[in-house]
Every structure is written in C-alpha cells, then in structure tokens.
Amino acid sequence: MHRPMPPGKRPKLWAGTPPAIFPALSGLLMLGLDLRQVLWNSVLPQGIADLFLGAVTLLFLFGLCAYLVKAARRPRAVVEDLRTLPGQVGLGALASGVVLLSPTLIAYDPAAALVLLWVGLAAQGVLILGFLWHLGRAPEPQRKVSPSWHLIFAAPLLGSIAAAPFGLLLLAKVLFGLSLASALAILVDSALQFARDTVPPPLRPVLSLHILPLALATVAAAELGLPMVATACGVLAIGVALVLLAEIYWVCAAGFTGLWGVFALPIASLSAACLALEGIGAGAVALGLGLFVLGIAGPAVTVLSYRILRLWARGELGPRTGASVA
Fold first, then answer.
1. Residue pLDDT, tens place only, 25-80
2. Of the candidates 5, 3, 1, which has an alpha carbon nearest to the alpha carbon of residue 315?
3. 13 lies in some domain
C-alpha cells in the first residue's frame, strides 16, 4: 500500500511525481523525430523540428529529474508504482524516453547520444528484471498479460532503432528479434483474453499500445534491411489502428482520465512506421499516409500532453493514477 500523507502536511517537492507523465512526454519526443524526418526531405526549414525537439527534450528532462528526486527520497516508491497499471505504463515510457533521447541528440553530439542509448537500454533492462520480480510475488490476477507489457518487454525495439546508426548491428538485431517475439506473444495472449473477457472502460485506452510494437518493428526492420518483415509489421500496425479507430467511442467510453497519455506514443510511432515504409519503396501511398497520420498526431499528442501535464501541475494526476508518494 502507498504511504499516506499526514493530515495538513504539505508534500515535499516532487515527492508525488506520477510516472503517468512519461507516456505523453515520450510521445512528444517521437513526434519531434517524425517531424525532423519529414522536414529533412522537404523545402521547409529544419529549424522547426530542432526547436520543437529542444523544447520537448527539456520538458522530458524536467519530468525525469522530478521522478528521480522522488525515487531518491524513497526508492520503494518505484516498486509501489510498478505494482499498478498506470505505473507500469509510465515507467516503461520513462525508460523508452531515455532511449529516444539518443536519436534526438545524435546529429549534435554523437558521443552523448551513444551514452544515452546505453543508459536507456540499462534502464529498460532493470525495468524488465524488476517487473519479473514483481510478477513472481504478485497474486494470480495481477499476472495476466496486459497491453502495458509492451512498454516493458517490447519497448527495446526503440533500442534496436537507435543502435543501427552507430553501426551496432548485432545489438540491433538481437534487440529486434527478442522484442518482436515478446510483442507477438503479448498480442496473441491479449487477443485470447479479449475473446473471453470484457475490458473495463477505464482500461480500454491501454489497448492502443498494441499498435506500438508493430509500428516500432516496422521502423527497425526497415533500418536493418528487412523489407518484407517491415511491410508485414506495417500492415498489421495500420490494421490494428483502423480497428481501434472504428471503435473509438467504445475505447474512450470512460471519458478523459490520467491514463489517456498512453495514446501519444502509439500514434506518433504509427506515423514513423508509415514514413519508414515509404523509405523502403512503398511509394507515395505510404508517404501520404505517414503525413496524414503525422497531421493528426501533431495536434492530438500536443493536446493530450498539455492536459496530462496540467493535471500534474495541479497535483491531481498522482491521486488519479494511484501514484506512490515518497
């Protein structure tokens, strides 16, 4: 159980930082990388993407600093966050965001970008071990496979994407194979559960995370020279996105909650997947689809992030998502 705050006592600075801020922040980083890729191949000034990425990087680092302060005050607070679904999603997005800082900085400081890649992969490794430790001690109902597991076991696909530009192809291929296998296993198990059980309305936004590993696998396969695999994963990602879009009112039936930040990273990753398909010869159709998704993702992710961060600033996001307090 979370440690309650004494009555009338103000919490210490950042003591209640909720991990639920990180899905939105990581989505903004991915959105900035999509924008940079588009502007590289256009007549528009590259500086637009650089300014956006710079601002988003500072915002992510601020959130990361706030959470690390909380963790330093009471390390067990991280363990408590890992026991809840919003916490699992948030911590997975935190580690993913650190990995995303690597391609963000590679054009300016390759050495720092490489360090961030290894730090991010180490964070993902620690998260996987910590989550497995939690599963070994959790009651049976908490051991059920969830879409949130993608951000723990399949998110190292980001490491595969980030490792390729450094020539670390063996590392990229190992991460790609292990992560894709994990993603497919989670997808299959989740589909079987969905056929048997009804997803409660507050948890339905988490279903959007099924898009994420397929979209990231598309980008990673394209970078590793696997066009058939990239095409298959891209088609599956688009198919899952269309199914969820067709049922958007069902998915969002519970209304806006602090969990809606989970939409950000899958939406931005889908745009990256479409742009990657264009790069391996899918042509103008993939490019047009990628620009269309990016046109939707830009405002959507920005508005979602603003609302999530506003809840954090008001001190409401932590209680709403069951975040621990240091």
1. 999 999 999 999 998 877 678 888 899 999 999 999 999 999 999 999 999 999 99
2. 5
3. no
Taking a C-beta distance cutoff of 8 angstroms, is the pair 101, 29 a contact?
A: yes
The answer to the question of residue 145 being in a domain is yes
From residue 276, how far is each of 153, 209, 244, 290 by CA, in Å? 23, 19, 22, 9
Distance CA 101, CA 307 (A): 23
Express each pLDDT in 238-297 by its tens digit: 999 999 999 999 999 999 999 999 999 999 999 999 999 988 877 788 888 989 999 999
Range(s) of the domain holding residue 51 = 19-317
Q: Considering the domain boundaries, does residue 72 fall inside one?
A: yes
Residue with tokens 């506003």: 310
**Phi, psi values for residue 43, rounded to 5°:** -90, -5
First to last CA, the chain: 12
- Which residue carries 């696998």 as its tokens? 217
Residues ≥6 apart with Cβ < 8 Å to 280: 222, 227, 230, 231
Identify whether 3 is part of a domain: no
Q: Which amino acid is it at 324?
A: S
**Residues 242/249, Cβ–Cβ less than 8 Å:** no
Q: What is the pTM of this model?
A: 0.92
